[in-house]
Amino acid sequence: MFKTRFTEVFGIEYPIVQGGMQWVGRAELAAAVANAGGLGLITALTQPTPEDLRKEIARARELTDKPFGVNLTILPAINPPPYDEYRRVIIESGIKIVETAGYAPTDHMPDFKANGVKILHKCTAVRHAVKAQKLGVDGISIDGFECAGHPGEDDVPGLILIPAAAEKITIPMIASGGFADGRGLVAALALGADGINMGTRFMCTVESPIHQKIKEQIVANDERGTDLIFRTLHNTARVAKNAVSQEVVSIERKGGAKFEDVKDLVAGARGRIVYENGDPDHGIWSAGQVQGLIHDIPTCKDLIARIIREADEILDKRFGAIRGRATAQAAE
């Protein structure tokens, strides 16, 4: 049994969170993670309308009686989604855990707090985590440079970012970027985190609602199988390396690239079709460097059980043996 500040505050069995992923965070995955003892997340903006989110939450409730949450990513847009309506649905549906990302959740916090909703905010920098803590969020997800999606512009990997954040964060904090197994969980705890967040690893599970060929592509890829796009636009995104991402990188390398030069290549609709039809070269899709540690497609139950078992073995056998040798040497 792993008890950390995160499991205690957020009311889950194991300190393992399924990241909120566009087109992936659906009821069947969130419920499977919850049933296995982790924290599963439905991605609000995957649902085209707030009412669709209400239905997706209800669908998850038919699949699990364990706690699960909703990811609400707040980003600038010419025509922004109706965030207030999504928030209202989350509250009315009785959800008690929300993962926020993108902009600070300042405008949403009063309603969430008034309705007993705990807020886990994703950050890519220590300074952002400190700001979120001051705002009053209940937990931090600190995302290292290895992670899929948007790792920020500072290029700080988890080995530095996690302990740097732990020195300044007093609320529960989980680590994201590069986690797939028990070794990662133990490492995150040793670095000062209270748990781990996994996105790409949960994409590659039986219950993940993406095409089998994409899961097999993740298994086939190694740690080099990603590209960083939008670097010149100062909105870096780590995505799976494919023909489309390579074209985007090539355009950016020529210099002076504007979003209009790549917008058709990076259209979200194309990425969604990747997950639906299984053609990994049809569009841009997110994946982290952790692909190099993913070698199978288990159920969420088997994956989480394996991570906990591996972590126990590392703590009991490997660390125990190391401490035993040190104690014996000291006694000589």
Structural notes for this entry:
- The chain is of the alpha/beta class and 332 residues long.
- It folds into two domains: 9-209, TIM Barrel (Alpha-Beta Barrel), CATH 3.20.20.70; 212-290, no CATH class.
- Helix content is 43%, strand content 14%.
- The chain has helices at residues 5-10, 27-35, 50-63, 83-92, 109-114, 126-135, 158-166, 182-190, 200-203, 212-220, 243-253, 259-262, 268-277, 300-331, and strands at 16-18, 40-43, 68-74, 97-102, 118-123, 139-143, 173-176, 196-198, 226-229, 237-240.
- The strands form two sheets. Strands 1-8-7-6-5-4-3-2 form an eight-stranded parallel β-sheet. A two-stranded antiparallel sheet has the order 9-10.
- The longest helix has 32 residues, at 300-331.
- The protein is globular, with a radius of gyration of 20 Å.
- The two termini are 35 Å apart.
In short:
The protein is α/β, with parallel strands linked by helices and 332 residues long. It is built from 14 helices and 10 strands.
